Each structure stands twice: as C-alpha cells, then as structure tokens.
Amino acid sequence: MVRWLTGGSYNAKSISRSLLDADVIMTTVERPTLGQAEAGGIRFDLLHQPWLGRLLRRRYGRLLFQIPLLLLLLLVIYDGFTGPQLAPANSATVLAWVHYRGLVIVGFLVLGNAFCMGCPFTLPRTLAHKLSLHGGRWPRRLRNKWIAIGGLLLIFWLYEWLDIWASPLLTAWLALAYLVLAFALEAFFTESPFCKYVCPLGAFNFTYAAISPFQIQTRSAQVCRTCQGKECVRGSKDTPGCGTELYVPMIQSNMDCTFCLDCARACPYDNVALGLRSPIKESAALRWPRRWSLSLMVICLAFMGLMNAFGMVPPVYALLDWLDVGLRLHSEALRLGLIFILGDFLIPAGLAYGAAWIGMHWTRSRPPDGLKDLTAQYAPAFIPVGFGIWLAHYGFHFAIGGLSILPVMQSFFLDHGYSWFGAQPNWELSTVIPIEWIFPLQVTAILGGFLISLYALARRALRPNREPLLGLREMIPWAIVVTVLVLLSLAVFNLPMEMRGTRMFGV
Amino acid sequence: MSKSRLRTINGLIILLAVLLSTCACSRRSSAGDQAPDIDLVFNLQPDPAQVGSATLKIALTDSNGKPLEGANLSFRGDMTHAGMMPVLSDLDETDPGVYQADVEWTMAGAWILTIDGTLADGRILQRQIDLEVAP
Predict the structure, then answer these.
(1) How confident is the model at residue A507 (pLDDT cuts 50, 70, 90)?
(2) CA neighbor of B70 nearest in space, from B40, B97, B33
(3) In a domain, B80, yes or no
(4) Which of A18, A366, A501, B62 has the most CB atoms around it within 10 Å of its CB?
C-alpha cells in the first residue's frame, strides 16, 4: 500500500500522514484501479442527479437524514424510560428491533450503507470533536476489527441474556450507552475510531454494504492524479474529510465507508460520485486486505445470523437443558456465553482455519502468508450467504410486525393526551405481507445468497494462469462450509418459530 | 484538552443526565391496579396452552371470597417480542363473578396476558400473567 503510493503517480508527501499508515485504509487492494471513469465510466451517479444529487451534496445534506433519525433515537430513549414496559406496545422496542433491523437490510439492497449515512450517534460525536483539542490517535494495535468482533459478540450475548428485545428500558439504556461511547471516543481521539474500529452496528453495516448497488467512486482519475490538496480525505476549509480516512481514488469497496458524503462535499473539483456498480463485485472479484480480523468478521457475521435465528427455535432449549444438567452450568449467562462464543466465533473461525488448511495442503500451494492469505481470499464469498440469512431473519420480523408501529404511536399520542391519529389504537395492524408468503421468501433469500456465494467462491478459485483443478480443490472445503451453513439455516427457519420462550430467557 | 472545553463537555454530560432523569421520572396516563384486594383466578383450556383456539376464564372474588359481579373486563395478549399483533378480546360474564373469552394463540412462545377493566364499584383492575404457549 505505501509502496504503491510512493511508486505511483501520486505525490505521497502531499497526502496526510495518517493516510500513509497502512493500517488505516481497509479498502486498499494491491493494484487499485485509479478512476472507474477511465475503466468504462460510471453508469449512474446518484450525486449528480438533478434534485437528489444537489440535496445530498449540500453542506448540511447529511443532516436531512440525521435529524429524523436523531428524533427517532430521542423517542426511543424517552419512550423506553417512560413508556409501557411491554415490548410490542413501546416504540423503543418496536423501532429498534423491528424497524431498524428490517430497514437497514432493505437499505443495503436499494442504496448502500444508508443507516451509517443518517446515523444519529455521529451528531453528538461531531459536537465532541469540535469541543476537543486534537488528542492522540487511536492506538495502532487497535486499528483492526477485533474490537468490532468483540462488540458484536457482546451485544448479541447481552441481547439474549438480558432479554433486551423484551425490555423498552434496556433498549433505551443501550441507545444511551451508544451515544455516550460515540461521544467519548470522539472527544479523546483525533480521527473517528468509533465508526471504524468499535461500533458493532457499523461492523455489520460495513460488511453487508458489500452487496449494495452504489459505491463512492471518482468521476475522473486524471483529476485525482493532479489534485494537490486531497481534500476528500484531508478536508477543506468548510468541510471535514473522510472520517474513516478513506482516499476516494483508492476506494474499491464499501468497507469502512459510512456514506457520509463528506468526500464529495470537500472535493473542490466535484469529482466524487456515488456510482452504480455490480452488487456482487465485492464478494466475487475484489481482493480484500489480508487481515485475520477483517476476514473473520465477515465469516463470523454469517454464522451470527444463524445463531441469532437459532435462539428463537425449540432445539435451543434442549441444548440449554443439556448444558444445565449435563455440564452443570447453572448460570444462564454462562450457558448463553458458551453457546455464543462457540457458535459465533470459535466454530466459524475453526472452520475457516480448517478450510484454508485443507485447501492449502490439497493444492500444495504456499501463499506468502499461508492460511491468512487463503482465508482473506475466500472470506468475502460469505457475504451473500450471510446477507441471505440475516434478510430471512430480520425480514421476518419486519414482515410480521412492520405496521405495528402505527398503533404503538397512536397509543403514545393518546397517552400524552393527543387524539390526532384516532381515539383508539388499531392493534389489528401488524403484518406487512401475508404470513404465508414469509417462509417461501425466507427460503428464497437464503438460497439466493447461497448461489451467489458459490459463484463468488468459484470466481475466486478459478483464476487465469492457474489449473482449474487446483482452484477447484482449493475451493471445495469453503464450499462445504457454506453448504453446511445454508443447510443448518434452512433447518432452523423450517422449525416453528417461537417468539422467545420464557424458559430460555427467564422472563 | 483545554480546561474550558473539558468544562463544556462535562456540562453537556450533566445536562444530558438531568434531561434523562426528568424523562425517567415522568409517568404517563396509566391508572394502574386500584383493586389489589381482589382475588383473580385464571383458567385456560387447553392447559398447557398450545397454538390454536383456547377458552379463557377469569374468576373474581373479593377479600371475603364472594364472587364479584358486574365487572367490565377486557383481555390483551402480547408476545414478549416487539412487532407482534396482540390478541384482544372482551370478557363476558357467564356466571356470577366468572368472565370468559375465546382466544386464538397465533404463535408459540412467551406471552404476557393483561386483564384490564372496571369493577362494579368503579375501581380499575389491572393484572398481568405470564404464559408459555407450546407449538
């Protein structure tokens, strides 16, 4: 990365010191294509559409998305603390666990990392940044995805152990903790480490924005070659540069991109595009940085999708009973912790390690960094299947309860003495689509993700100047892991869904 | 970080804490249970509950064990997870002090049943019962 920068046509000295730090750019590949415009042009640029483009590129364009989400966040906190402590009747739990999760998934399909674009947590963070003197940089050892993986594990474990899904109060505390953490990290560090290295929601969004149809691109590579200011990353007088320190001409994926569009606003040449691209390009073709933390985050997230759904079906009770009686683990926190550590991290990491090891020995290949290289080679292929599993799960909740926010808000206003939306909440409103459609759509989502993952594995295995048989051998262990993941997911989604047994969670 | 900025940050954190404390202390318009002395016996058929149709019976008695007639009761069943349509029904008095409703358990899992209504003497009765519905 540094080698390429100094050896290429860019003047490395003109780029900020942070940019030259190899650890801060997660989207860099070995041979970046400079300027997609040169390589065939941008098919469709959202930022240069007559009305929407102008709106997005305005100095405070992001606020149009952030302010509504901030108001919703404040509603979550307020209603969570003061409203009825019944999850289906409180906007905190309905908005957080039905709508946020459902809509963030839909956002990936139609736009990209839409939630990070409108993330309300960054508003107080920006305030903190302005208030703070420039402190130290985020420690070099922590510039990876290990904290994000740990954060994901922690949040899924707390979610189940404390029944956060069933508690408006705890949901409000979680939102508040998020605000405070984002604020504190921004106040004490110069860059924006929260989004890039800490935020579990961001880790999820960065990963699955890989299947999005839009990506930040340059309109003309030549303009970037001659650019001296590098405002897209360093910022201009009025606009900050990229908070996660991505340099636009080198962006090849949506990883670490919050879609904040500060790069577009800062660029004095109006040379940044939010361009259309193939949604499977990242999964199938792009070479990602060779880092264990990044590869395992992607692989583990696919398994987390399975485990999150597994927590809602009857066999999990048998497993918990067995841990209780058989292994004498009487603490529910411990049992759930064990299940999540195993299912969310150790098993996927072990399977990835095993698949890489078998592939390497079967083909007798010796990549420079061995298992790490091979894992990085195939990890992105887990994104489509992981997305399919999450879509099946979160889509289920949204499909079955998307309209329930209407009576909840009716009730909210009635509680405050306003009958603008009717004198009685219409509690009959709930499902978005007929219930009988849901399971076929879940199967379609999982199988669709599976087929795209297989295609991605094949594209990654079958490379020019290499015997197809060797590629096939290298790919087969990974294909087996993906197939097992899909079969288990189909089995879980085929079981009668239980909306959280009290026996398991001690309600 | 300069002292003045640190003070500003501290001030903002304190302001946020005060605002949230104010929110947390405010209550909404729920009268709550005004009849803690009333005994409520809950009966469900089939028992244990299973997905499908069921009959719910509530028997109300006062502190002397005398059936309480003339109450106007409604029933609401919520799953513990957000986004699920509740089961709603009014309870009809079938015998003195006994109130009944037909309900449909739409999904297996944890339910919270809320019995809500007004007693003949005008007091509000509100009780919650946890229920596990089998597949």
Answers:
(1) very low
(2) B97
(3) yes
(4) A501
For residue B28, pLDDT beyond 70: no
Average pLDDT over residues A54-72: 89
Please check whether residue A223 is in contact with residue A271, taking contact to mean a CB–CB distance below 8 angstroms. yes
Chain B positions in Cβ-Cβ contact with residue A180 (cut-off 8 Å):
13
Residue B12 within any structural domain of the chain? no
Most confident stretch, A144-153, A357-366, A459-468: A144-153
Residues of chain A with Cβ-Cβ distance to B10 below 8 Å are none
DSSP letters along A21-90, please? -TTT-SS--SS--S-TTTTT--S-BGGGSTTHHHHHHSTTTTHHHHHHHHHHHHHHHHHHHHS-S-GGG-
Mean pLDDT value of segment A111-134: 77
A30-34, A217-221, A297-301: segment of lowest average pLDDT? A30-34
Q: What's residue A131's pLDDT?
A: 66
**CATH code (residue B74):** 2.60.40.1940
Q: Which of A93, A94, A418, A502 to mutate to test the interface with B (most CBs of B within 10 A)?
A: A502
Of A128-142, A388-402, B35-49, which gets the smallest average pLDDT? A128-142
Chain B residues with CB inside 8 Å of A96's CB? 82
For Cα atoms A67, A149, A191, give the angle at the middle one, nearest 5 degrees.
50
Domain count, chain B: 1
Residue range(s) defining the domain that contains residue B114: 34-133
Minimum-distance CB partner of A97 among B78, B82, B86: B82
Residue with tokens 């729920």: B30
Q: Can you tell me the distance from the alpha carbon of B58 to that of A424, in angstroms, rounded to the nearest whole number?
A: 25
* CA gap A176, A308 in Å, rounded: 23
Name the nearest CA neighbour of A71 among A37, A101, A95, A35: A95
Query: Which of A96, A135, A400 is the closest to B84 by Cβ?
Result: A400
Report the alpha-carbon distance of residue A446 to residue A443 in Å, rounded.
5
Spatial CB neighbours of A87, under 8 Å, sequence gap ≥ 6 = A93, A94, A97, A165, A166, A167, A168, B78, B80, B81, B82
With beta carbons less than 8 A apart as the criterion, state whether A216 and A266 touch.
Answer: no
8 Å CB contact of B81 and A398: no
Contact A312, A496 (CB under 8 A): no
Q: Domain map of chain A by residue range?
A: 1-61+214-277, 292-493
pLDDT of residue A495: 82
Integer Cα distance of A257 and A26 in angstroms: 10
Which pair of tokens denotes residue A332? Answer: 């529910």
Q: What is the pLDDT of residue A379?
A: 95
DSSP A483-496: HHHHHHHHHHHHSP
CA distance A502 to chain B (A): 5
pLDDT, tens only, B78-90: 988 888 888 888 9
Residue A39 pLDDT exceeds 50: no
Q: A409: pLDDT confidence band, cut at 50, 70 and 90?
A: very high
- In this complex, do B110 and A507 lie within 8 Å of one another by their Cβ atoms? yes
Which pLDDT score, from 0 to 100, does residue B16 have? Answer: 66
Q: Examine residue B115 and state whether it is found in any structural domain, yes or no.
A: yes
> Alpha-carbon distance A233 to A28, whole Å?
14
Helix (H, G, I), strand (E, B) or coil at B131: strand
Residue B69 forms part of a structural domain: yes
